Amino acid sequence: MTIPGGVKAVRVKVTLACTDCKQRNYNTTKNKKNDPDRLEMKKYCPFCHKHTLHKETR
Known about the structure:
By secondary structure, the chain is an all-beta fold. It has no helices and six strands. It has a single domain, classed as CATH 2.20.28.120.
């Protein structure tokens, strides 16, 4: 993604999916420079009705 002026965007949109039920519940952004690896967060899954690990999907 390029911002007017020729500057590349460092923050990219990512989708987080529950590791238990595989539902894609959350959208967020991450800084590719600071976090080159896949993002993992513990978030609430409304389908599982509990807090589970959510991983970045492509």
